[in-house]
Sequence to fold (283 residues):
Amino acid sequence: MIAVVGLSLIARWYAKRNVTSKTTVPAIARGTIDPWAFTDQQRGLIALLPKSMRRTFTVAGFATPNAQLKFVAIHALILVLAVTCCSWFASSLNPSPTAIFLAGCMGAVIGWWIPRSWLEWRVAKRRIEIVSEFPVMLDLLQISVQGGMSLPTAWETVSKTLESASDAIAQEMRWINLEVGFGVRWGESLMAATERTGVTQFRSLGSLLEQTERFGTGMSLMIQVLCDSLRHEEIQVLEERAHQASVKMLIPLAAMMLPATILLIFGPIVLMMVDALQKSTAD
Fold:
């Protein structure tokens, strides 16, 4: 418990130190595109976390080391509070060491599970938000390009437009725009966005932009084709879910209606047999 409290306090101190320290050049400015590559600010406690955990933080929207350290500190604080509360409650009921230890273990499980569940919920919510707003982003991008804007200008304009509707996709668009401003190719930057978010539509858009640049085809028309294909895939997914829903409804219907049906059919027969047996016994 003391170690966890100390870890949380050190994490909070390190987060404040990163905020007040001099801002360093991000990894993309040094020529790397790895979204989980260490920068100078990530040296320290955040380097002790596994890469899979840092990737989950990034997909959930905690891309900066400061935000990741804050989540780790809050997670540790919740863990300590859960263990303390469960142990205190067990000691008030049964002061035996075994009961206190079991209650502390249960509190540790609860304190670990609640933040992780919230993090997984945030990952799923953010991914759904990006996927649902992606065709709208393509529509606005096509209109901007068709109106005569260059791709970087249209990308920045669309990201500012989508800030009020979807902060998740606007945040990813700003990050992509920042990478492209440092000289990263559009395909590489959109591939990195796919790695950060788990949304494969960014990779499709990156391939499309690379083909447009390579073969000189019309960018507006290609974006429209990609948008139509994404909407067609979304309609197919909805139709598939609708067909699956009718099949899944059979299980609860059978579980609820089958006992009632059996009781309705065989109930009178059983009562008649019991009544007949009672009459024969009386005779």
